[in-house]
Amino acid sequence: MNIAVVILNWNGRSLLEQFLPSVIKNSNEAIVYLADNASTDESISYVTTNFPQIKIIKNHTNGGYAKGYNDALSKIDADIYCLLNSDVEVTPDWLVPVIKTFQTFNDVAAIQPKILDYKKKNHFEYAGAAGGFIDKLGYPYCRGRIFDTLEKDNGQYDDTIPVFWASGACLFIRKKVFEEVEKFDEDFFAHQEEIDLCWRIQNRGYNIMFEGQSTVYHLGGATLNTMNPRKTFLNFRNGLYLLVKNVPGNSVWFIIFIRLVLDGVAGFRFLIQGKPSHFFAILKAHFSFYGNLGAFIKKRRKLSKMGKYYTVFSVVWQYFILKHKHFKQL
Hints:
This protein is α/β, with parallel strands linked by helices. The protein has ten helices and 13 strands. The longest helix is centred in the C-terminal third of the chain and has 27 residues, at 276-302.
C-alpha cells in the first residue's frame, strides 16, 4: 500500500523546523511531500537544504486548505493520501495501525488517528480529538471535545470505530475515493471542508473511521487562532454552506433559520464580551452566505442525499443548558 504524507505549508518555516523532524523519523512507510501554497518566506529553501528526501510541490497561489490540497494531490500518485497539518508531531509507528485498518476494511475511505494537544499531551486537541460527529443543526463536535471543553486522555477512546467526520489536521483518505467524490469544495477555502468531504464520502456508501491506536499531537491555531475574526467568519459561513449542501429533505430550510437565529445570539454574545470584530465577522459571514446561496443550491441538487446524519438533536442544548460537557454524557 503506497502512502503519501502531504504537508500543506504557507509561510510556515518555523513550524517546519519544529515538526518536520518527527515526521521524517517516524514515516518510513511513506513518501513525504511538502505542498507549498505560494509562500514568501524561506520555507522551500529550508526544506530543500535540510530535508532533501522530501518532495516539494509548488502551488501558484494560496488557495487555502481546500484548493491547496486539490492542486497538490492532483500531482501525487499514491494509494493513500495523508493530509497532515504542518503543526503536527507524529509518534513512532503512527502509520502502522492506519495501514492495517485500510487493509482490513475495504469500505473504509478515510481514517483519523487520535489527536492530542501538543501543549498538554494528556488531553485531546480541539481539531478532531477522537473522531467527529455533527448534530441535527449542523454543529460539529468530537469524542473528547465538545465546544471548548477538552477531555483528558485516559484511554477511553483507544478503539477503532466509525465516525461521521475525520479531522483535516491529520486525514488519511484513499486516492480513488477522493477523486470519486470530486475532491474538496474550494468555495469553503478553509474550515469544515473536511466535514463536507466526509459527508459526501458517506453518501457514496463508504465509511469514515477513527483509529485509536495511532496518535499524533497537534499544536493548533498555527494559521488562524481562535482570536482571529477571519476564523470566526469562515466557521460561521462554512457551517451554513455545509447545511445547504448536505442536509436531506426540506427540513434544511427550517434548520438554516434556526442556525441564523443562533448565529445572531452568538454575535451579541461577542458584543457583550467586548469583541465587536467577531460580531462583524458573523455579519460578513451571513452576507457572504446569502451571496453564494444560489450556487450552493445548485451543488445540493447534484448530490445524492443520505439518511439520518446525527445522533444528537442539539449539542448546544446539551452543553449550555444541560451542562453535559463530555461525549459520553450526550
